C-alpha cells in the first residue's frame, strides 16, 4: 500500500502505521486476524469517504472529476489479505 496516499476516514495514512508499527503492530495484527477469523467487522472500520478530485483547473462537468475512495488502513489490510487468499485458491484450482 502506498505510504503517502490519501488518509482514510480515520485520518491515518499507511505511513502512520509504518512509523508507529513498533507500538501498534501487535494490536493491528490482532484486529485484522480477529476480523478474518470471526468474519465480523467492527462498526466504523469499513466507513469509506468518496472524494472528487478535479482533473482540470475549472471543472464544470462530472467527467472532469476523478473519484477516489478514502478507506481505513485496517480495512484495506483485511481486504488485501482476503484478495491474496482468494488469488491463492484460484491459482490452485486453475493450475493444480
Automatic annotation (TrEMBL):
PANTHER family: REVERSE TRANSCRIPTASES. This is Reverse transcriptase. It comes from Linum trigynum.
Amino acid at each position: 500500500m502506498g505510504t503517502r496516499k490519501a488518509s482514510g476516514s480515520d485520518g491515518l495514512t499507511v505511513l502512520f502505521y509504518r512509523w508507529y508499527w513498533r507500538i501498534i503492530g501487535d494490536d493491528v495484527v490482532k484486529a485484522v486476524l480477529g476480523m478474518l477469523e470471526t468474519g465480523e467487522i467492527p462498526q466504523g472500520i469499513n466507513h469509506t469517504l468518496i472524494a472528487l478530485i478535479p482533473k482540470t483547473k475549472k471543472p464544470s462537468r462530472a467527467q472532469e472529476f476523478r473519484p477516489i475512495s478514502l478507506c481505513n488502513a485496517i480495512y484495506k489490510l483485511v481486504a488485501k489479505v482476503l484478495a491474496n487468499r482468494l488469488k491463492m485458491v484460484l491459482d490452485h484450482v486453475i493450475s493444480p
